[in-house]
Each structure stands twice: as structure tokens, then as C-alpha cells.
Amino acid sequence: MKSLRIFLLLFLSLAMPPVTVSGSDVTRSAKAPRLYIVNSGAENVAVIDTATNQILETIQVGKWPAGLAVSPDKKKIYVLNSSAESSSVSVIDTTTNEVVNTIKTDIGPMHMAIDPESNLAYVTNTDDKENKSVTIIDITNDSIKGRIKFDGIEPFETALVPDKKLAYIVISGGQYVSVISLRDNTEITKIPVGKIPLGLAYSSASKKVYVTSHDDNAVAIIDTAANKVEGTVPVGLNPWYIGVDASANRIYVTCAGDNSVAVIDTTTDTVTGSIKVGASPKGIAIDHAARKAYVANKADNSISVIDLKNNKVIDTIQLGKNAHPWGTGLL
Q1: Residue range 273-319, pLDDT digits in tens
Q2: Contact between residue 80 and residue 127 where contact means Cβ atoms under 8 Å apart
Q3: Is the pTM for the entire model greater than 0.90?
Q4: Burial 74-83 (b: 16+ CB within 10 A, else e)
Q5: Whole-angstrom Cα Rg for the chain
Q6: Counting runs of H as helices and runs of E as strands, what totals does the chain give?
């Protein structure tokens, strides 16, 4: 199996910053949520007014930024700088949109998931072949709390199941999902999944965890009661990330290989549609109130805006040359 690092080097290429609109040029709409897009090539975060789909400003972060997480109180945004050189988390104050802190991690942090009850964040260090770790950060003071080590390499993304006090962590190099107790941060079990598992998400509606298998072109379905794979769903080519629309009993899967988003009905766990988006879609954010989804298209430096009422693209936001968008978040 090819190392996941090969994929990351292909997708997170060196780039020049895009031309953007500064905050002084555009006035933010009063009530519209802000969309934060991590531009891995430009090494910044674009802040977008979702009422007008215009870029308000950009925030410079570390090298090869990838994932993004919003704190439960929405006062801070955490951006994962995944290069070996950076290997850090940029902390952004959402009032000023300025980086106020940088937290060093193990090598190659990709994603962060935050437990709102404990205020502990779990950072997957994908490129740390020695430690094979997840860094635990206390977001009350943005300090390192500890570390979880794994047998397999390349921990990639985490999904939390709050009512069970469990974390499900994709170990891409080991082709399994590690189930961690949030009570003591110890591993309970390993669940084998498909080839090169990447993104995963928990649906509170179906009480299941869904995991993309990049090389199988499928999504594995984990029953959280039994902690076993109960089935798989074929999707488009090379699936990466998953957005959850629990109120509509749907998940949305970005498929980078055929520039599409697969729509899965979680009541039947079947594909009910496919939405054509931009080239090489990665991250996806769901605006539940506005019934929209925002898909980061890495290869053509754009965001596809999807109307979730009819699952159609209604707008495209251009980010500029070599932006290479990746992670997404709404505030």
C-alpha cells in the first residue's frame, strides 16, 4: 500500500498566495455566518461572508495548513499546519481574526476534534511515523495535556460520539479505526475497515460512524453499539471527507477522483444522488439553518455552494490561483 504521505504531497503542493479581497474592501453582512476556508497552497485562511459569497479577508497561518476546528464557544478557530517544518496549530481569535497563539504538536498534524464537555481537543499527527500519536490539547488554556499512541501509523481524522464518551480515530496506515474512551483516553478496540481510510463522521440520527475508504471507492458503516462494520456503500472515485446533515438523515461524501459529492440516505444507507462540483473536492461544511453545503475544490481553487433542498450547486466562489482549499468551518 502506498504511504498516505504520497497523497498529501500530491495534494499539498507548493504554491503562491492567491489574490484576495481585504477586510477593508468588503463589509460583512450583519447576520450571515462566516465561512472559514483553509487554503493549503496559499498558507492562509479565507474568511467568506455567506450572504454575499465574497472574501472578507485572509489570515496567514503555518505551512501546509489542512484541517480546521471551531471551539464550542465559537471564540477561537484552530488550524492544523501539517508540514514537518511547522507541525503546529494556529489559534485564531474569531473577534479580530488574528492568530493569537501557536501550539507545537508531533509531526504532521492534520485534523482536530473537540470534546465540548471536557474542552479537550484531539489532534491527529498523520506524518509522525515514530510516535504514531494523537496530541491532546486543553483548549481552556491551549496547552498540551497528553498524547495517545497507536500501533498503526498515520492517524488521520477523529469523530466524537459524546453520549457514549467515545472517539473514533482513523488509522490510515493500519487500515482500521481505533475506538478511544474519552474517560481515560485509552483504546477500547480496533475496527478493520477498507483501503486507505481517510475521513469519518458520526451521525446522531442513525447512531453510526461512516468512514471513507479512498482506494475502495466506498464508505464503511460502523454500528456504534457493537463497534463493528455492518456494511459498505459504494460511492464515487477516491472519497475523502464527510459532511453530516442529521436533521435530513443524510451524509455528503466528497469524491476527489470524479469531482462529485455522493449523497447517502442514513435511514437506508444507500446512495440517493451524486452532485457534480469542482475539481478534487476535499473538505465540506454544512450550514443547517440556511440549508447549504460548502465544498472545497482543491484542484481548481474554488468553493461549490450546494442548496441542500434540491442538492444542486447554486454558486461557485473563486479563491485565486494556487489557493488549494482543504479544511472548512462555519461560524
Answers
A1: 999 999 999 999 999 999 999 999 999 999 999 999 999 999 999 99
A2: no
A3: yes
A4: eebbbbbbbb
A5: 18
A6: 1, 28
